[in-house]
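Sample pair:
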Amino acid sequence: AIKYTPDGGEIKISSTEYPIEGKEDMVTVETVIEDNGIGMSENFQNHLFENFSRERTEATDGIQGTGLGLAIVKKLVEIMNGTIEVESELGKGSKFIIRVPHRFGNMPDNAKTEQEDDKVSTEIFKGKRILLAEDNELNAEIAKAVLQDVGFIVEHAADGVICVDMYKNAEAGYYDMILMDIQMPNMNGYKATHYIRSMEDKVKANIPIIAMTANAFKEDVENVINAGMNGHIAKPLERDKMFRTLADALK
């Protein structure tokens, strides 16, 4: 909405709670984002939530983007068993409606205290530069958004070869950490880590490297540690667990 609404335009956001029939312990939260920006054609709306989908018009010339934003939003909404729909008219604006079910719950006081104690202060991440090696564009965009939200400066490498080249050509200390996907084309995360750990410059060779994998079995974690990495994060990413692992590696 912000990107495609010109200066002087208007964006409205509202959120309403509705009961779910037959489920007294649940509600549907409906969030509406409405703008009077450039809008979208009816034909483009049929492809709006597809990866890399962007409408090319005179009004969008000069506006940067990957065409992944709404695909990511739709994926996250569906993970929460929700829905997203759009109403739009070219030249008049757009309205997005997101509906997500939520269950009421009572958290014991001791659980609240434990949860608060377990949270990581994200101040440690501000200004830290992280090299993200991830071949899946959608996963990379999600990881970048999560990391940038807490202050990381993120640079992306699309596979292990690019990751190694970027790191090899950087000065020692330029990157504070590497977040390494394991399954990548051209060079996987294990080989990329081996190359980095074998560098003659010991400062560069000892950079913290955290693995990202779709598996969280004990043997997967052991393989990561045996390969010389400092930690393991399972996909899909869980913010609190991810931040604890990253904070431990930076200490």
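The radius of gyration is 21 Å.
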